[in-house]
Specification:
A hairpin with a 2-residue loop joins strand 5 and strand 6. The protein is built from eight helices and nine strands. Helix content is about 45%, strand content about 20%. The chain has a domain of about 130 residues: P-loop containing nucleotide triphosphate hydrolases (Rossmann fold, 3-Layer(aba) Sandwich). The strands form two sheets. Strands 2-7-1-8-9 form a five-stranded parallel β-sheet, with helices on both faces. The protein starts with 8 loop residues before the first strand and ends with a helix. It is an alpha/beta fold and about 200 residues long. It binds adenosine-5'-triphosphate and the ligand Nc1nc2c(ncn2[C@@H]2O[C@H](COP(=O)(O)O)[C@@H](O)[C@H]2O)c(=O)[nH]1. The ligand Nc1nc2c(ncn2[C@@H]2O[C@H](COP(=O)(O)O)[C@@H](O)[C@H]2O)c(=O)[nH]1 binds next to strand 5, strand 6 and strand 7.
């Protein structure tokens, strides 16, 4: 009996404003073979954000209901709003043999690590804190006080990069994409991923 290999779960995480969304959009444009999970959030949509495309926008009650019904792989409260990853999409897509990427903050990534250690955890790092501030301010989507809160979070998030499998610096978007593509295509192989792969060899008749 032949086995169908499950997809691989990639977790791209890092401080707000480092460029996770930008890098994911650039990877999509390249046609990198990944499926992109759409998160649920209680945050208000920004100008131009579309429900079901950028996020599933939910009320706090709806979000709580999803938590209670175990509909989320992970969730976190981040600077006053809730964010979470719908579990069904991730499970079904991995089961179908396709790779999935989550673009999430650090508390959520560490929850996924506890439940799903075979995932590949990538920390996207800024070239400097000054550059991070420039990027998040330049995006123009947050008030000055929210930017300060996000930068305070960033300092503690950066200290947690040791828990990841890879740290990729986002100095330049295409260079960061090259590094992530090398991880996704398996040019850099995490040991636990290889162990999983070779374990499955013994399942084949
Ligand atoms: N390598 C880069 N060089 C210069 N600017 C960048 C780079 N990557 C992203 N940016 C810019 O930084 C800003 C923040 O990027 P982006 O919104 O992708 O960050 P993010 O990590 O997804 O943020 P959040 O977690 O808050 O959603 C954007 O204005 C984007 O154009
Ligand atoms: N733990 C989770 N974090 C998530 C999820 N979706 C997005 N995020 C992260 O939240 C912050 C803020 O996002 P923003 O859109 O308000 O700028 C950022 O770091 C996102 O990556 C999720 O499902 N779970």
């Amino acid at each position: 009996m032949a086995f169908r290999e499950k997809g691989i779960l990639f977790i791209l995480s890092g401080p707000s404003g480092v460029g996770k969304g930008t890098v994911c959009r650039a990877l999509r444009k390249r046609g990198t073979s990944l499926k992109y999970s759409i998160s649920v959030t209680t945050r208000e949509p920004r100008k131009g954000e579309i429900d079901g495309v950028h996020y599933f926008f939910k009320s706090r009650e709806e979000f709580k209901g999803m938590v209670q019904n175990n509909k989320l792989l992970e969730w976190a409260e981040y600077v006053g709003n809730f964010y979470g990853t719908p579990i069904d999409y991730v499970r079904e897509t991995l089961d179908s043999g396709q790779d999935v990427i989550l673009e999430i903050e650090v508390q959520g990534a560490l929850q996924v690590k506890k439940r799903f250690d075979e995932g590949i955890f990538i920390f996207l790092a800024p070239p400097s804190l000054q550059e991070l501030k420039k990027r998040i301010t330049g995006r123009g989507t947050e008030t000055a006080s929210l930017i300060e809160n996000r930068l305070t979070m960033a300092k503690s998030e950066i200290e947690l990069m040791q828990h990841y499998d890879y740290v990729v610096e986002n100095d330049e978007v295409q260079a960061a994409c090259d590094r992530i593509e090398a991880i996704v295509t398996g040019e850099h192989c995490k040991v636990s991923r290889l162990i999983e792969k070779y374990k499955r060899f013994s399942e084949v008749d």
